[in-house]
Amino acid sequence: MKEEKVGLFITRVQPWLHAGQVDGIRQAIAQGITKIIIWVGSANKEFTSENPFTYDERKKMVELSAKELLQDIQIEVLPVPDMWDNEKWKNYIFKNAPEFKYIISGNARVQEVFKDTDKEIIPLEIRMFVKGSTIRWNLATRNIKELQKVLPKSVIEYLWEIRAFQRLREIFNAERKTPSLVVDMVLIDKDWKLILIDRKNFPEGIALPWWFNDYGERWKDAAIREVKEETGLVVEVEKELWIRDEPNRDPRAHNVSRAFKWKIIWWELKAADDAKAIIKVDPKDLENVNRAFSDHREMIEKALKTD
User: Fold this and answer.
1) Do β-strands 255-266 and 180-187 pair in parallel, antiparallel, or remain unpaired?
2) Which CATH architecture group holds 6-172?
3) SS3 call for 238
């Protein structure tokens, strides 16, 4: 008879199992795990933008995900409330969890909490970078196309059933969630090549250097700071291009962009840690570039047409 290998998988599941978590569970299955106890974190939180769903709703969505995508493993779902004291959190789990031997996690806090226990940690490789905040934003804006990439069909149908899209929109409005301000920078070197970023994180692809405005910071100051951090270049404004405020221009959240064309005044090209690489692209080759943001090409084309 095959030995039962039981693993503990801790997650907030707001509102999934999403594709990244399913991939993590499959990694555990590949290492011989036969049963997974899914502990739903923040089980005492609900009806906020961070935790919009009840524990019972999250449990239902985990069960739907497992039925559709994880038929080859046993799943048990249990709640755990928020506890910021690691020792109390660990003791709560040991006291209330069924018997288990393995901790399945790619989360640094979870690995640290259990490293000196008799539990064996199965570390997960984060092969699919999926953010819960992005899923919740796509729910609030009814961005079904993006949701279908990371949530199983049965969960999306259940979200329609419980009117989750309307709930998220109402919560965001009640909490006065507002768009973030970002600046996009079109940089063209002396050889008329575009300086672009090959992104490491979601959404992956090629993008203009860009970032968020800090509180109390002007758009232009944010751009100068961020270009230096992302590329090592020192720049000054050559021309303002436009403002883009389409709610779904960024698949992660509602980010309002102000785009500028910049003149490079000092060179020391160096990619930041959150980029795979800095690349140079001839404008005529833009058609072959896998863009992370669809409107970056429009920004580039507008910059190329300016004097």
Assistant:
1) parallel
2) 3-Layer(aba) Sandwich (3.40)
3) strand
| Cut 0.85: pTM above it | no
Going from N- to C-terminal start, the domains of the chain cover 6-172, 180-305
Each residue's pLDDT, cut to its tens digit, for the chain (307 residues) gives 467 888 888 888 777 777 778 888 888 888 888 999 988 888 888 999 889 999 999 999 999 988 888 888 888 998 888 877 888 888 888 898 888 898 888 777 788 888 888 888 888 877 777 778 888 888 888 889 888 988 889 999 999 999 999 999 999 889 887 888 999 989 888 888 898 988 887 788 889 988 888 888 888 888 888 888 888 888 888 888 889 888 878 877 788 999 988 888 877 777 666 678 888 899 888 888 888 888 888 888 888 886 5
Structure tokens at 148: 């279908």
Sheet of 6-11, strand order: 74-79, 35-40, 6-11, 102-105, 120-123
- The angle formed by the CA atoms of residues 30, 12 and 171, to the nearest 5 degrees, is 140
CB 114 within 8 A of CB 130: no
